[in-house]
Amino acid sequence: MEPVVAVLLVVALVGVPALVLWRVLRGRRELGSSPAERATFETLHTASLAAPPLRAGLTEAGAQKACRHLRALLGSPALAIADEQRLLVYDGEGDHHAREAFEHAGKTLADGRTQVLGPEVVSCDLPECPIRFAVVVPLTTDGRVVGSLAAYGGHASAGLVRAAHEVANWVNSQLELAELDRSRTRLMEAEVRALRAQISPHFIYNSLTTIASFVRSDPDRSRELLLEFADFTRYSFRRHGEFTTLAEELRSIDRYLTLERARFGDQLRVTLRIAPEVLAVAVPFLCLQPLVENAVRHGLESKPGAGRISILAEDAGAECRISVEDDGVGMDPDRLRGILAGDADARSGTGGVGLANVDERLRQVYGDEYGLVVETGRGAGTKVSVRLPKYHPGVSAD
Amino acid sequence: MNAAYGVAAVVVVVLAAVLIGVFGLRLSRTTSDFYVASRTVSPLWNASAIGGEYLSAASFLGVAGLILAHGADMLWLPVGWTGGYLVLLVLVSAPLRRSGAYTLPDFAEARLESMTVRRSASVLVVLIGWLYLMPQFQSAGLVLRTITGAPVWAGGLLVAVVVAVNVLSGGMRSITFVQAFQYWLKLTALALPAVFLLLAWRADGAPAPTARTPPVFAERTTVTVAVDVTVRVTEPVGVTVTGRLDGRSLDRARITLAPGPHAVARETTVAFPAGAAVPHAENLPALSDRQWALPLESRDYPLYSTYSLILATFLGTMGLPHVLVRFYTNPDGRAARRTTLVVLTLLGAFYLLPAVYGALGRIYAPELLMTGRTDAVVLTLPGRLVGGTAGDLLSALVTAGAFAAFLSTSSGLTVSVAGVIGQDILRGGVRSFRVATVLAVLVPLALATAARALPVADVVGLVFAVAASSFCPLLVLGIWWRRFTDAGAMAGLLTGGGLACAAVLATIAGGPHTGLAGALLAQPAAWTVPIAFLVMVVVSLLTPGRIPKGVARTMVRLHTPETLKVDRGDWRPKGT
After folding, report:
1. What is the mean pLDDT of chain B?
2. Which member of B29, B31, B539 has the closest CB to residue A21?
3. What is the residue-wise DSSP string for B416-481?
4. Cβ A20–B494 below 8 Å, yes or no?
5. Phi, psi of A350 (to 5 degrees)
6. Under the phi-then-psi rule, with left for phi > 0, alpha for psi from -120 to 50, and beta for the rest, what region is A288?
7. Mutate which: B26, B46, B102, vs A, most A CBs within 10 A
8. Which whole-number Å values give the CA distances from A182 to A176, A190, A191, B576, in the listed order?
9. Nearest residue of chain B to residue A279 (CA atoms)
């Protein structure tokens, strides 16, 4: 028995870590068999290493990281990247040239043309310094010059100029992608802001008039309602954080419903069934509030008699399932489909914009399989269901 | 024991479980009052639920059985199973809660930002879950056999079917309150009979196991053997045998058993005269009562085995998938710590009881040493000591508690395992969750029928060793070491988990082994845990370039109390 155990031990102790290390390191070595293949793979690999730092835009830290790889790509002794204001990085031999590097870029930054600078501008007094020429190419985004890339070396061949151009083009495409990412993020933030702004007008007006109606008859109640209103707006207008906990979100819904109940009185009945296990789940900020508001506004306001809203949150293994249901007038499924598909005509009417916004944000955060599910028909009430994973990379309530 | 009471107890417990499952009695509050609806689960409830899910057949039946057979050394099992929560409290609970991870694979992904590590962790969760479910099913077979005489596979099948139905109907999910109730049921089912047993023992003159010889039959005793067993007879003894003994069919034959091993076939009854030494099953040591009461006497390499057991139980608790998901219910890290503290108290109270049963079993049910089924001691004692209707009722209560233990632990494990299989291995969706549930139950059921019957607490001890050699280093290094890399985690999980699994397989399928190899395989933690830590650290240091990009942010998230207002980073869409 002992020999078997010993062999097993050796295999596991030496073999497994070695295997893992080999797999980790192999990625760098497996670059094809023929020299041409290897050169191609190496070039592509170097380019792929330079890409991630540039995806944050033209920043100092990103430029410093990318510069090494870009220099390897060009094969020049030194490389400098500058933006419109200053030199971001000078990487390679002859550090003393870094001081003048931004001046070298000046003309290119001004007119957006490639400059080839000769020894009369570039070269220095040090005999061993290999740097005599510089090729400065512009970096552009949307046709606007945002920076420059300068390759320094002992000569300036047509090949180097061409290569510098190609590398600059490649960097440009990365910068444009970065710009795209930024605008996507800005769009999302703008949507959340829009949503925050959107709840307000009707609701603020209705709440204030309701509170006003209590001021004389029931001053205590009007004070309570006013405090609820204050807390509600404070939560809705908070600036930080994309996510909150389900408990927080429900608390805000409670304030909202308190105010609505003051307005509707007995007309509005609310049932809650919340599994306590899911209260700690991180959810996108204001992802349920619009659903409840939708239920109140489109389900009940336009309907005579009492209305009922039920909010259900249940635990389902690695997910939590939430549904908001009303027994109001319902919606036309086709129109709803149009709204959720982002159809501008359908959106122009009242309502549903909140739903579409929530739907988009949920898909953006969790992926397409986590969109809203709406069951409705004219006069048949509406039920909106959401599934939220308990854990998703990067999602956590602050 | 009157079988009717026992059957009634099983029927009641099973029926209650099925009804809760099918009718979805989730005890979630239906109300129109938000204050009530948004109250989180208090640490006491949460801790009770963890206790309910954690106290398995091994704790309820197995510990007492091992104490009966092996004596003082086995007290480390309940100590370790409780102490594991101390390690969890100090090192893991609050940071893990703050990480926002629901399962262990979630944590691996959040901390190491690697899908490969996530998948390996998923495979390990499934393996650990299966290994843990297997002895639950085996014990269910033993219990049903003890009370009704049904074949040993029947009980396992019953539990497996009930659990599968419950999980498939979705009833075993949001059940904090049901699981919390299970803890108190188990505590009552063990504590109440224990009180009566102690009273009966006092009335009997409070005999203590102090003899210098192995136990003897106090009076004429008829022993029925449930499964084939080989027993060692130490001195010639005249017995009456019905059934098959040493390959011969006998019917109420009076024969004399010569010293040496004898094969007793299942369903054989052997009647011993009063004062005869109890023949021990061949895998149990024949200890005198004095040796039994002293530590380091019961097994080969006792010092190694004891330390290995301590290491496995103290470090393995944090790697149990069905326990960790319960921590998610806590609203924040502080509540997670409080919950762990309460769990320590609750488990400490519970684990006093198995020792009582083990010691009383030594005095009043020594024939279990012959059948080898020492796990049955908890079920046997109430009928033996109290007798009459009271004894039957107490037996029924213990049986109910045992079935509650199988059902609650198996359900929790099945939900966890099925969730991981469905999400990480079968790619999500309702359909794959169903397939996953069936897989999660079928595989351990097959294992339970095929594998040889080891004492339940031993098998669970091995599962703890696997968890301690894989998830413990992953969690501890993941939470406390910035230079931990995905390559290191992979290497450590494969080495530590692989070695421990190999040892488990060798013990369950190939065993019993003897000598040093036997001890190393039966209690692998003492060498697999250090190896796993070492491999993780060394490989991490060799791959400094693979430290996850977001490590600083993750560490801030894990270690800053929620009340502090710090920048924990914001969510950004992928690619930025």
Report:
1. 87
2. B539
3. HHHHHIIIIIS--SHHHHHHHHHHHHHHHHHHHHHS----HHHHHHHHHHHHHHHHHHHHHHHHH-
4. yes
5. -80, 145
6. alpha
7. B102
8. 10, 12, 14, 8
9. B40
Size (chain A), residues:
398
A290-302 tens-digit pLDDT: 889 888 887 777 7
The amino acid at B218: A
Position A53, amino acid: P
- Residue tagged 């709840």 (tokens): A199
- Within a 10 A sphere around the Cβ of B148, how many other Cβ atoms? 15
CA distances from B373 to A365, B29, B242, B331, B404 (A): 55, 44, 20, 44, 20
Q: What DSSP element (H or E) covers B253?
A: strand B248-257
Secondary structure class of A154 (helix, strand, coil): coil
Q: Residue B168 burial (CB < 10 Å; 0-12/13-18/19+)?
A: middle
Q: Which residue of A has its CA nearest to B433?
A: A317
- The rounded distance, in Å, linking the Cα atoms of B128 and B132 is 6
Q: Does the pLDDT value for residue B496 go beyond 90?
A: yes
Q: Chain A residues with CB inside 8 Å of B28's CB?
A: 273-276, 314
Which pair of structure tokens corresponds to residue A199? 């709840």
Assign 3-state DSSP to chain B and report helix, strand, coil percentages, each to 5. 70, 10, 25
Q: Where are the alpha helices (DSSP H) in chain A?
A: 2-10, 16-29, 35-54, 60-74, 98-111, 119-122, 158-217, 219-236, 246-264, 289-294, 333-340, 344-348, 353-366
Q: How far is B352 from chain A (nearest CA, A)?
A: 30
Residue A302 burial by Cβ neighbours in a 10 Å radius (0-12, 13-18, 19+): exposed
Give the largest Cα separation in chain B, rounded.
85
- Compare CB distances from B495 to A13, A24, A182 and report the shortest one's residue: A13
| Distance (Å, whole) CA B414 – CA B490 | 25
ipTM exceeding 0.85? no
pLDDT-derived band at A4 (thresholds 50, 70, 90) equals: low
- Residue in B closest to A256 by C-alpha: B34
How, if at all, do strands A307-316 and A78-83 pair?
A: unpaired
Spatial CA neighbour of A310 closest among A271, A252, A355: A271
